[in-house]
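The instructor's notes for this session suggest beginning with a concrete chain rather than abstract definitions. Hand out the sequence below and ask the class to guess, before any prediction is shown, which regions might be ordered.
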Amino acid sequence: MTHATTALLLTAPIVVPLATSAAYAASGLRDAKARAGAAALAHRTPRQRGAAAPVATLVLRPGRGPATYGTAPATAPDGPPYRGRTATGSGAGAGGGVAGSAGLAATGPSAPARSQGGNDCLPAGPGRYGGAPGEQAVPRGPGAPGSRPGGPARPGTRPGTADGPGDGGPARPAGPGTEPGGSARFGSEPAGPPHPGATPAGPDGAAPGRGAGAGPERPARPGRGSGAPPRTWAALRAARSGPVPRPLTGRLGLVSPFAILTCGAALACTVPDSGPVTAYGRLLRADALTVWMLLTVGAVACLACAANPAHLAHERTDEPAARRYLLLVHAFLAAMSAAVLAANLGVLWVAIEATTIVTAFLVGHRRTRASVEAAWKYVVICSAGIALAFLGTVLLYYAARQAGIPEADALDWQALRAHAGRLDPSVTRLATGLVVLGFGAKAGLAPLHAWLPDAHSQAPAPVSALMSGVLLSVAFAGLLRYKVIADTALGTGFTRTLLAGVAVLTLALATALLLAQRDYKRMLAYSSMEHMSLIALGTAVGSPLALSAVLLHVAGHGLAKTVAFCASGHIARLCGTTRIGRIRGLLAHSPCLGTAFGAAVVALLGLPPFGLFASELGIARAGFLSGPRWALAAALVLMLAAFAALAARTARMLLGPPPGEDDEEEPVPLGADAAAPLVAGLAACAALGVTTGPLTALLSEAGEIIGGR
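After discussion, reveal the predicted structure:
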């Protein structure tokens, strides 16, 4: 493998997600600029608006409400205001007005009140559009989104006005290029058949039943539209130039996950044979452990990002919020890839801290009181843990410098591993304890675990899948780098005792909380604590079999937990609650969704044929062979209680008839787009339980790296 290829494979998992985030950010800035220009037009005073030529325009008030109509000076839909431009063409002229079945009005010199911009003129807002000289005006046609249906006449109105009484001038007949009723269409198309919901037009082109009257003009009433959302500047431009382009959501959502997975697969083909590879002055490094974690991150990210479109569609997230959400998700993937590929312990710390910053905004994405509280709790606890890990890293740097390791290599993992026997034992012991506490907080280990159930229950389902499936494992993989150094400097006894104690404490807390749990998303979060404690216990055992089983458990847990959390998001939308006691008969209510959720829980329980069965069996065998046996015996008892709690609550949700439902009601189907990630995740998890195939050599070599060999 050439140096350029190596640099590309090590850089792409970081650069591609960052480029994807930058693409979302650029799209958001472009739309924000358009909205800012529209807002600037909306703040113009009536006198400023009346200074322009009197033309026919459609005024859309800013906000989420339906469209309102009135008159305002002509402006172009894209760019700054165009002074002196007037809308000309069919259906609008200088001598009168045209009113169609949608209730649009055009004014000319015959309506001085509207042309002068007095107090009775509608305030201008985004959505006004006219055209360049020689172009045709493009008010909405009948039945278009945001248009007002025609209705009976109001007293004191003249033909050709939208609502209010006019000045008694005659209505101008509809010209060529207008629909029946006089409303101009986009472009200059010939007249067509009337819209099904339109009011028939009279012989003069105006809506029937609108009589003439006298009196001052009255502004149009806001909020009387059809209820459809107002068109954006991009939609207006597309209406004049061509079809509306597809949003970036569907185009870029899977690019960075596939890039991470592809780079991991390419490295998996070369690293077991040729050994570790480095790039950029040993700043990035890929060994067997790195490649295994990169494959896990890529696989879980593919499933979670494939579930994002269905999640955003069901939550009816508006376009700016969806863009911000996807930007943060891909920045999150870049931070995790950087943490996995970092060869420098300082860069590793920075990358894990970056995951805290990014995911804090994702946890509070819904901006509810509970989600914001969970985000702050997550930030405070994880920041405290990361501060402890930073202090441990500083102490390890101090020990390296005291041992004579050059400054440039004092935080390089390979150099510290090679010279770990020269480190001061007391300083190294203190640094290791701080790192276990600090990175253990990010990994969901006690005692700094309290953020995990709140954050996972309040975050969007795909984000919960990423956090539980890979973020916890990435943080623990960073802890494993320090363990290798500590084992060489202090022997295996210190880290074995420390990790075994933390694992049993975490498992005891998770089991107790699972027994009392009434919320299924929090139940899945406590299940993550249970599985991370098993991973810590297998690491404490330290034998090659146990370490290989640990890495297999990392991958299997990531896939199964991703399916479980994505399915829980669909359950919350289907049933409208996350309370276990309020959900019954999910298999009857939605067979596909209930089957996927039940199979994911079966995988998390460690039953065959899923990968967690093989990994837990390997950890148990290795623990009884080489110890610590006391920790393994306690873990087995606690796991039985957790198994019973998780199985009983899941069975309550899946079995029985739906409460208050008719037995003859049709089951709710799960769409193909939503079901595909669930099926793929379960299939991959089952495949790992049957065989690791070509990944066997990679798995064995990664276990040897963790064991310090």
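Then share the key points. The radius of gyration is 32 Å. Residues 51-247 have pLDDT under 50 and may be disordered.
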